[in-house]
Write a sequence for this structure.
């Protein structure tokens, strides 16, 4: 395997340029990048978002809800890949049952959850990995007696499309829409918005 640092193609593309370290600033619930570049941040110190319906999440980027109350900070999102560290309470979904045109991958780091996928249920535990090719209907629902932690990644290809299908199974878990739609605003309209804050079970999480 060839090291990226020794790739002639990469050196030719970059030329003499160097990638600067991003500046981290304190948002309402932790640190968030305030400039472009590479950075390192601890999960304990990073900015978090909370939602009464869908638990907690750390997105590691200066997404709009993260900086909404800090007008001096601009929203900065990763260009090619979205990453989320999600914390689910038992019985609470990670979002709404959906399929999208981009690939997504998931790794359960702690706790238990139920994966709803293509009309089926799969019980998952720590160290279970889930791969969803484009078009895979899915959502996660917390299970067990404590919080479930899932590391989520999703490609950000151009012209992304979404669909929230009509699913009785998803509705039975509080994770389904009343009628199929391709509009995220319509699907999430009845639910509370994400706001800065840590998950309710923070003291029970592995890094607390």
């Amino acid at each position: 395997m060839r090291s990226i640092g020794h790739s002639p193609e990469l050196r030719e593309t970059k030329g003499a340029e160097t990638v600067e370290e991003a500046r981290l600033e304190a948002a309402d619930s932790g640190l968030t990048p305030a400039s472009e570049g590479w950075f390192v941040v601890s999960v304990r110190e990073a900015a978090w978002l909370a939602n009464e319906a869908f638990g907690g999440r750390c997105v590691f980027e200066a997404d709009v809800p993260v900086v909404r109350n800090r007008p001096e900070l601009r929203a900065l999102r990763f260009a090619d890949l979205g990453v989320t560290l999600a914390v689910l309470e038992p019985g609470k979904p990670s979002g709404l049952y959906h399929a999208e045109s981009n690939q997504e991958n998931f790794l359960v780091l702690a706790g238990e959850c139920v994966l709803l996928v293509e009309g089926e249920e799969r019980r998952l535990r720590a160290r279970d990995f889930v791969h969803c090719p484009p078009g895979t209907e899915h959502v996660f629902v917390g299970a067990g007696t404590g919080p479930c932690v899932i590391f989520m990644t999703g490609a950000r290809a151009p012209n992304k499309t979404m669909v929230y299908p009509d699913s009785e199974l998803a509705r039975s878990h509080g994770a389904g829409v009343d009628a199929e739609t391709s509009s995220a605003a319509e699907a999430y309209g009845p639910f509370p918005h994400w706001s800065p804050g840590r998950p309710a079970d923070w003291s029970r999480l592995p890094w607390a």
Notes: The radius of gyration is 18 Å.
